[in-house]
């Protein structure tokens, strides 16, 4: 029994995976097309700047949160990273569709899909949108690495024309054609790669969504705001807000901020109109997605982190003790924290 597969076998598998190659290639090239051709999404002054979407990834990303946070704290580096990522997506997606250096492009696509999965796999309001994009991209990349591209590709044309580079051993690993590996080793490669990808799929499904056991959850549905570093000093109340969950396409809308003492008496209360007119200079934002006063409330975009400072002479006269700060969202959700003066 022959211990290898012939070229015809690879041309057939490349033909069978043609649809995957074209569709997956377009999903990556279209990212470049949208951001550069259709709308100026790489312009930091544009409302739809891609950096804001990147900011949405931060709260619940897996393993790469320090990288995301560094870029958000350094807008010039963030812009360069977004431009670089977009160019890579455009070039790789186009070459993948054309079938040029198919296996190289499949490796890059697998890496891009993994980056999407780790950063944004928790997002998705109606279904597990970004998680599905990530895991399917990884699976497709590995599949195309094994198959290469078939008849309808530039790799195939180069091989048929006997272009010099196609005779090099490395071309089979980085382009297309038969892999220079024995059949039994190819079986082990395919099986081990499949097991690893299945593990990544199941692990991230459970980590982000509880998709295997325990309560199923979707962090993209309801807003959640963390309150940190709450302080009462002299005539000021300051606290840091970090919006960590909820829909990414619009903000959480804060309609009430109330400070009460231990008996429940209100010391300060800012209602919706007060928050809509809140001074911008009293908000110190950390990232490019900013907490800001809106038309009818204070808006907290997903991933935004900022410190709010409320000044009022009444705060300088309150006695030492325990106080409670309560925030109310337009949805009715409340978040509270205790403050010791």
Give your account of this protein's structure.
This protein is α+β, with helices and mostly antiparallel strands and 341 residues long. The protein folds into two domains: 7-209, no CATH class; 224-340, Sandwich (Immunoglobulin-like). Helices cover 45% and strands 19% of the residues. The protein has eleven helices and ten strands. The chain has helices at 7-16, 18-38, 50-57, 65-73, 75-98, 102-120, 129-147, 154-160, 169-174, 183-209, 272-276, and strands at 224-233, 236-245, 252-261, 266-271, 283-285, 292-293, 298-300, 305-311, 322-329, 334-340. The strands form two sheets. Strands 3, 4, 6, 7, 9 and 10 form a six-stranded antiparallel sheet that branches. The protein has a four-stranded antiparallel sheet with strand order 1-2-8-5, with no helix packed on it. Helix 6 (102-120) packs antiparallel against helix 7 and helix 7 (129-147) runs antiparallel to helix 10. The mean pLDDT is 95.
List keywords for this structure.
single chain; 341 residues; alpha+beta; Immunoglobulin-like
Beta content comes to 15-25%
Overall pLDDT: 95
Shape category: elongated
Helix content estimate: 40-55%
Spatial gap, N to C terminus: 82 Å
Q: Give me the number of helical elements.
A: 11
The description of the largest β-sheet is: 6 strands, antiparallel
Number of domains: 2
Alpha-beta content class: alpha+beta
What is the succession of H and E elements? HHHHHHHHHHEEEEHEEEEEE
């Amino acid at each position: 029994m022959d211990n290898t597969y012939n070229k015809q076998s690879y041309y057939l598998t490349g033909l069978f995976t043609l649809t995957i190659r074209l569709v997956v290639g377009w999903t990556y090239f279209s990212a470049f097309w949208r951001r550069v051709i259709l709308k100026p999404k790489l312009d930091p002054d544009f409302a739809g700047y891609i950096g804001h979407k990147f900011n949405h990834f931060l709260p619940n990303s897996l393993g790469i949160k320090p990288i995301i946070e560094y870029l958000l704290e350094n807008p010039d580096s963030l812009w360069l990273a977004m431009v670089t990522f977009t160019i890579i997506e455009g070039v790789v997606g186009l070459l993948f569709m054309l079938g040029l250096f198919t296996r190289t492009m499949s490796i890059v696509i697998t890496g891009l899909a993994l980056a999407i999965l780790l950063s944004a796999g928790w997002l998705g309001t109606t279904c597990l949108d970004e998680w599905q994009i990530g895991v399917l991209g990884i699976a497709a990349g590995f599949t195309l690495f094994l198959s290469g591209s078939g008849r309808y590709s530039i790799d195939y044309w180069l091989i048929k024309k006997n272009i010099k580079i196609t005779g090099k051993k490395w071309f089979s690993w980085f382009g297309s054609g038969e892999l220079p590996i024995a059949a039994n080793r190819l079986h082990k490669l395919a099986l081990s790669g499949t097991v690893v990808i299945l593990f990544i799929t199941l692990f991230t499904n459970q980590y982000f969504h509880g998709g295997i056991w325990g309560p199923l959850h979707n962090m993209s549905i309801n807003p959640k705001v963390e309150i940190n570093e709450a302080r009462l000093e002299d005539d000021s109340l300051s606290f840091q807000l970090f919006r960590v969950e909820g829909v990414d396409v619009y903000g959480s809308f804060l309609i009430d901020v109330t400070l009460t003492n231990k008996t429940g008496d209100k010391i300060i209360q800012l209602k919706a109109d007060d928050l809509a007119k809140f001074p911008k200079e009293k908000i110190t934002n950390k990232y490019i997605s900013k907490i800001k006063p809106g038309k009818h409330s204070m808006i907290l975009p997903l991933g935004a982190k900022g410190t709010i400072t409320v000044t009022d002479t009444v705060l300088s006269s309150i006695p030492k003790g325990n106080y409670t700060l309560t925030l109310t969202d337009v949805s009715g959700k409340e978040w509270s924290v205790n403050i010791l003066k």
